[in-house]
Specification:
Length: 283
């Protein structure tokens, strides 16, 4: 099964040097999107202009990929957070934060971990099981619909937006995760996605997270960062599990049902009531 990993310009240069020093056989590219293609014995690798590398997961290919990938040396832990359920009218909002060591980061890059929005449910579960095996530190904030609706109403009453709500959830997941890291003051990098980095950053500072050994990075491409992708996968699995539980509890296929066909008394227990298609059914 092909495995893909994003590589940076430095890693691409390392790959080119590896090709020259080991005399690997290059073959013509097959599309305008390909940068180079290697077919040398069991090693089959394609590099795309987008920065994506795809290989056939053979021992020879894994050896090459292992050689070219950079190692994180500046930090002991890299944290990323992501939320799932924000755009679905049904089910909970799940925010997850994952803390990765440099070894975890490298392992997940080789594994082809990527944002859960790019994965189907089977792929999410498969990768979540692989993530479980490494026993990483991660924490979740799970807001089931009934609690979500109550908390969201409180934020709205205070004149705050959905982004304020999300910033609170992200900051809570991050601070919970930090509390479970070793107490020996490790060097930590926290990656905040672009949805509203300023508000999340302010909440983290208010929680006294900003310390000399902790660096907070605001990334415009946070969903491409491995710690964020890991958090995304773990949040997505939890979301899907909870949607299945709610569907079974109320005998409703939430993934395929129309809100109009749900008893209005049940709607606040399975849906986010501020969504327009839901609120109009409750007035």
């Amino acid at each position: 099964m092909p495995v893909s990993v994003s590589i940076n310009p430095e890693e691409l240069a390392r790959l080119r040097n590896y090709i020259l020093s080991h005399g690997l056989k290059k073959v013509p590219t097959t599309s305008q999107y390909e940068l180079l293609r290697i077919e040398d014995g069991e090693a089959k690798i394609v590099v795309y202009k987008s920065g994506k590398l795809v290989h056939n997961d053979s021992m020879a290919s894994r050896e090459i990929v292992n050689y070219i990938l950079s190692r994180e040396r500046e930090f002991d832990y890299l944290l990323g957070s992501d939320e799932v359920g924000k755009g679905e009218w049904y089910g909970p909002l799940v925010t997850s934060c994952a803390a990765l060591t440099p070894e975890d980061l490298l392992a997940f890059r080789k594994m082809g971990v990527r944002d859960s929005k790019l994965l189907n449910r089977n792929e999410v579960e498969r990768l979540a099981q692989e993530i479980d095996k490494r026993r990483i530190v991660y924490k979740r904030v799970i807001l089931m619909p009934e609690i979500y609706n109550k908390r969201y109403a409180e934020f709205k009453k205070e004149g705050k937006s959905l982004n304020d709500f999300l910033a609170w959830a992200h900051a809570a997941a991050i601070t919970d995760t930090l509390a479970y890291l070793p107490p020996s003051s490790p060097r930590v990098k926290i990656i905040i996605d672009k949805f509203d980095a300023e508000k999340t950053d302010l909440r983290l500072r208010a929680a006294e997270v900003k310390q000399p050994n902790i660096e907070i990075i605001q990334s415009s491409k946070g969903d491409m960062e491995i710690p964020v992708s890991v958090a995304s996968i773990m949040a997505k699995r939890t979301f899907e599990d909870q949607v299945t539980r709610l569907s079974n509890q109320y005998n409703i296929d939430l993934r395929n049902v129309s809100p109009e066909k749900i008893d209005p008394k049940i709607l606040p227990l399975v849906s986010k009531t501020h969504f327009k298609n839901i609120s109009k059914l409750l007035t």
